[in-house]
Amino acid sequence: MTQFQTADGIQLVYETFGLAQHPAVILIMGLGAQMRVWPDELCQRVADAGYYVVRFDNRDVGDSSHMKDQGSPSLLKTWLQQKMQRPADVPYTLKDMSRDVLSLMDELQLHSAHLVGASMGGMIAQILAATKRKRVRSLTSIMSAGRAPGLPDPNLKVLLQLAKRPTPVNREASIRYTMRMNRLIGSPAYPMNDIELRQLAETSYERAGSPCGFKRQLAAITAAGDRHHLLQKIKVPALIIHGSDDPIIPARMGADTAAAIRKSKLKVIQGMGHDLPPALMPKLSKLLIKHLQKSENKWQKRLAKKLTEHQPELPFQQLNTR
């Protein structure tokens, strides 16, 4: 695990899998979740397929900076400000979090990378794919959306339950809470057993953020509003993966996201909820690797064409895959 400071002065930690000379894949995790929610099996499978996999803790979670001085925002106030099209008074935005990803890429000297985001991480990846096209080779948006669920949406009740976390002082209560919430949002067709649930909960307890950190991230999602105008600007190959039984972000929102991104591909996984259970890893890894391979081939062909137009004598072997 490595730590560095972003351009905004945020301390971020990250881990890598695979060889640094291989094409990079940045994994961006979701709301209140630390980087190790990305299963080791998924990371290793992608690395074994020939990629340099990077996962990291977002600000306000895990071992990255916790923005305690930013306080606890009002979610209702943020929602009302967004609906009235007024500047939302939030500690930070999804755009700020997208700059964290760029800082991570700069730290690793990556000119470009494939972006894979889950839930809130998918929203951050969408912003980058739309606004920093030269730095994004492909987009994979998992159980995410082009807008935040509105307050009338019954699924927001699940998010509010997630926000009401017990004090981290009580270890056992926190672990049981996390297990209960993971059952609530989990995949009916790929349920995790008690051992898997507890292992994930214990890991999360040791490195997770605070309840206020969760609320600050949720406020950033709420303040972002509708991003369909950005989705329409995405030109890179995009794969949208969603679960048919997602209790937080319904599958229809995944389909809506795919419809807004030109030439994107939508894959709805039957029986998947709002999690990344071990039993789903073979199927999810296969989908992701296939998308990465096709996208990387397109990127290299485009790069080769661009370089040969300016330097016809440059052999393909000398192309920089970073």
Outline the structure in words.
- The protein is an alpha/beta fold and 322 residues long.
- It has one domain (2-318): Rossmann fold, CATH 3.40.50.1820.
- 43% of the residues lie in helices and 14% in strands.
- The protein has 11 helices and 8 strands.
- The protein has helices at residues 40-48, 75-83, 94-107, 120-131, 156-163, 171-185, 194-207, 211-224, 228-231, 251-260, 281-310; strands at residues 2-5, 11-17, 24-28, 52-56, 113-118, 136-142, 238-243, 265-269.
- It has an 8-stranded mixed β-sheet with strand order 1-2-4-3-5-6-7-8, with helices on both faces.
- Helix 2 runs parallel beside helix 8 (211-224) and helix 3 packs across helix 4 (120-131).
- The protein is globular and about 60 Å long.
Low-confidence stretches: 313-320
- What can be said about the biggest beta sheet? 8 strands, mixed
Distance between the termini: 21 Å
The CATH architecture name reads 3-Layer(aba) Sandwich
What would CATH call the class? Alpha Beta
Task: Give a quick summary of the entry.
With 322 residues, the chain is an alpha/beta fold. Helices cover 43% and strands 14% of the residues. α3 (94-107) packs across α4 (120-131).
